[in-house]
What does this fold into?
Amino acid sequence: MIPVTSFAGRTVAVFGLGGSGLASCRALVAGGARVIAWDDSAGRVTDAASAGFATADLRGIDWTDVAALLLAPGVPLTHPAPHWSVLAARAANVEVIGDIELFCRERARHAPDAPFVAITGTNGKSTTTALIAHLMRHAGHDVQMGGNIGTAILSLAPPRRGRVHVVEMSSYQIDLCPSLAPSVGILLNISEDHIDRHGTLSHYAAVKERLIAGVQDNGAAIVGVDDDFAQAIADRAEQAGRPVVRVSVRRPLSDGIYVDHETVVRASGGTRTEVARIGGIGSLRGLHNAQNAACATATALALGVEAVTIQAGLRSFPGLAHRMEQIGRQANVLFINDSKGTNADATARALASLDDIFWIAGGKAKSGGIASLTEYFPRIRKVYLIGEAAPEFARTLNETVPHVVSGTLEAAVEEAARDASASGLAAPVVLLSPACASFDQFRNFEVRGARFRELVEALPGIAPV
It folds into this structure.
């Protein structure tokens, strides 16, 4: 745990008492702060009270005694409207911050030179975060990994010289972190997502840009420049004097890191050096993972890791659960869990890396549905639709791709396994990549992916990959 000493002797209101909220309460109290905890869920308030924290409805407290509102990232800050707790704090001129802001303040107070790697982007954040942590551990470093990837940041060991914190950050978390100043900041890409929480794509991109703009002067801003928004952000960061490392998987660069025929290349001062080969690494299959690997490689280089160590680390990376996770084989049929493919752009990356796909898709649809995926339809043998999005997706597929409305994940796995096995194809793939949120049938994408794994492992003749 990281005791939060920056609020010692002062009162902090905490709204949102999920995992990160309770971790924040513990860290604040450990650092000497007084906490008032609340949530719109009565059950969570009861859990906080049972854990020994003071609870009170923030609508009725005296805000003049409150130093800050610690807001959970899932609670609306701006769009579609600020949460009532945010309005109450602002009316009293109380700052609204998140748990990663508390981490940043503790690092600045106690270990400003401690390596802090922050990763954001629309897609690939979790894989890149896990890969960077893996590479740094493989190089012998003390590594703490957390943030949006699942472990509350204040549950980690405290910052200190030589200890590397690798932190995945969503746009919501960046919005709540005004003093964000990583030693290495990574922006992978930007595409349309979370517009319901940011209003416009431009505002969403501007929030992401803050991570790059805040990189320390002696650090590195690593930016994937294969989309227009990220390219413009890299240009602005460079103009502002930030040390920018550009990354591309679509074209060679005269200065930066790029991927050429499954080889990660570093270009600098007119010279080009092969750093690592990613071909044949199953956990890094596809163009999207090439970008993840290139950005992770750029990070490791910025932190002083040698190329030979990076290569060995890439080859030993086991992959990330629910992101192109190879579950097993039934004879020649490969089953892949890509439950983290919660939007069309993420699913596009999965479809682009495979052929002869028996695709399980659907859930709670996001803006645009799967209309943007038509270029990948020739790779798909059949689609098995589940959840609320099934009728909409069926209209998009129309007569272009064979499909069936399976309704549930259980039915879809059974039907897809049967059809793939009977297809006569050399290497068919049953792919769960829903292009949807999970919230119509599952609590989150992890639960959805875990259920897929259970169903696949229960099939006769399944062998682990």
